[in-house]
Amino acid sequence: MKIGFMVPRETDFADDQDPYGRIYEMCEEAEELGFDFATFTHHRFSPDRPHISSPFVLMSAIAARTKRLRLVTTIFILPLYHPLDVAEAAASLDLLSAGRLVLGVGPGYRPYEADAVGVRFDKRVARMVESIEVLRAAWADGPASFHGQHYNFDAVDVVPKPAQRPGPPIWIGAIEAKPIERAGRIGDGWIAPSLQPFPLLLERAALYRQAAAAAGRPSVICLERDVAISADRDEADRGWNARNEAYIQHFRDHGAPVLPGEGPVGFDSIRDDLAISGNADDCIRQLQRYEQAVGCEYLSTMNLGTGMGYGHKGNYENERQAMRLFGREVLPAFLP
After folding, report:
1. What CATH number corresponds to the domain at position 279?
2. What is the pLDDT, as a whole number, of residue 312?
3. Which ranges in the chain belong to alpha helices (H)?
4. Average pLDDT over residues 127-143
């Protein structure tokens, strides 16, 4: 199982004099510590909680500062763009990084993002499916033509072509059963969001593997999980619980299907099904549980420190110390 980490949003650790310097430092150190990949979130027009609005730009800067770290979007909201634009940008980034790009995509769940660019929200899934076809056609050798419901063009030659042939892997983020089956049918991998309790995750992983096998497609799971690590187990648990209560509520407020039910989350009663938290030994044991039961090929850690609060600026030093603790005491347990 390869282990990565979620790159902080631009505003998490921004310094007015150097807004991206701390993010660069974290990525460079993560590579030195042995993390396999970095993930980049994406949202647009969200001043209440700014995300990375142009991930390819930030990923290019990090690609130029690293040599081995794979660069993964989790997730890029594909229907908000013309797929030929994405094909060009992704191919250029893949070349710049010497073939380290994984394009993780999804349809999005925030109507205002689609409204802002004149895209019908109820057509976002169909646009995403067509866009994936366009990307693969555009990355193939020679000119491409496509005639669909949303995109039509003839003999367009996207250049340069990506370093990876036939193109960067396309992973699809999905939460519910039907979208997960779709990810198996048309994707190269499934990004499993963090807020799925363990029994449901096992059920959905099996569903994904079956759909991929039936379609003759590769079967790769990238599992996202929030992590809090500290030498003080209680401190880690408190930090994990505090931010995830707000995290769940944020997604519910935006209409995203996450944990079933309404009202208070009550994380203390379900944390064993969701959390990776505690000291290094605790984290190793919990990660091994996912590796053995789910068979996930990739696992992306979301946060690592105990000072990150959802909706609040993070504690940079706390996060760096946690990254070092995780890298030095947890990652070696998962080396080949």
Report:
1. 3.20.20.30
2. 47
3. 21-33, 55-63, 83-96, 111-116, 124-139, 177-186, 198-215, 233-253, 267-270, 280-294, 316-329
4. 98
